Amino acid sequence: MLTIDDLLFIAIVVWLLLISVIVLRALKNKEEIMSSEAKSRRDMIDLEKITKNIERDYKPANINLTSYEQEQEDNAIISYQELLNSKDKNHVNYDGSFNNKTDIDIKKVDLSNNEKNAYDEHNQINITLMSYEKEEAFLKALKQLKIDLAR
Question: Taking the complete model, does pTM exceed 0.85, yes or no?
Fold first, then answer.
């Protein structure tokens, strides 16, 4: 017959077996999760890497002009090459003497002096806040009228 010590020993062994099975299953699940994460990382498209490769290896396509296109290019007012060269030189000079009295910032373009000066204002941010003084005075007058009518 089994004694209490034998039953206690069997219970401890069964308990240790259960704990070891639970631990082994947890490790197996963790490995499966890690392998699926590694697979998903491997399968993911690395957009940043692709973008850097495109930027590094970008070469503009050579344009082969037909004789008609070459004739049009030669007779054009401004050539395609001039457009490409001037695309980064966009600047506008404004007439400083023009003054607008409204809340909206309006500037007059100085067309006579446009090519002489470089545009330096693109680095500066001009912030103009709208004034609500007229609206606030109107609301105050309405509130006063409401109080006067309530009497």
Answer: no
